[in-house]
Amino acid sequence: MRRLCPVTDRTPTADLAPREWGPQELADAYGYPEPAAGGSWLRANMVATLDGAAQHDGRSQPISSAADMRVFGTLRALSDVVVVGAETVRREGYRPARAREAFAARRAAAGQGPAPAIAVVSASLDLDFSAPLFTAPLTPTLVLTGAGAPADRTAAAREAGAEVVVAGDGAGVDPHRLVRELADRGLRRQLSEGGPRLLGMLVAAGVLDELCLTVSPTMTAGGAQRIAGGPEIPVPRRFELVSLLEEDGFLFSRYRRGGAGPE
């Protein structure tokens, strides 16, 4: 990876010079910790501008970069499941995760399939079940919803080939049940790609173990959302810096929840 520099004090000084990182070296840098038996590790991957915007014109692509997309692809390649909110699926035109040859041997050694599953979080199930995300995935797409979800939309999801997972007693999803239901299916390396409402829900519930945040060297002004939305939590949650990388002015940070360890 061109001009990507580790800058934490955990890295030997000799490694601080800008240099090219290959996909395996990048995968090593972002490897998941090994959870205990039956446990899981939930990380989120988000991008934000210098003035805190998570989107421009409703999408994250305008504030991203080629380097950001390489990190994005690496994080997906390491995960068992990608968790994403329904609004992000609609806005970003989500498609199934694809198999990446560069990571095929690593995934096979970890007992993973060729590509992670996509898990869509939706209370209303207002989704296009004719889209390739549901009709042509390498790994069947999951839909996480509540027990009060509309019966006709639940039936439509199943008819399209999605696995419907009830992870809440009401209309919506309980974050703790979300994590547990996925782990119970062997999907322990969990990656959330937002959007802001979903990330805010995960943060408020205290289930987010790690945040991978790209800081884009851009400014948008306006009223764009931050990376996490929803109600304010009573006490700010503290996260600890694990690593910081840089390329072309973009910063790639990893933070872990204070005191977090594999569960």
TrEMBL record:
Which keywords describe this protein according to UniProt?
NADP, Oxidoreductase
Q: Look up the record and give one Gene Ontology term from the biological process aspect.
A: riboflavin biosynthetic process
Q: In which pathway does it act?
A: Cofactor biosynthesis; riboflavin biosynthesis
Domain Bacterial bifunctional deaminase-reductase C-terminal stretches: 41-243
GO molecular function (one):
5-amino-6-(5-phosphoribosylamino)uracil reductase activity
Keyword Lipid metabolism in annotation:
no
Top-level lineage group: Bacteria
Protein's recorded name: Bacterial bifunctional deaminase-reductase C-terminal domain-containing protein
- Organism encoding this protein: Streptomyces solincola
The record lists the lineage as: Bacteria, Bacillati, Actinomycetota, Actinomycetes, Kitasatosporales
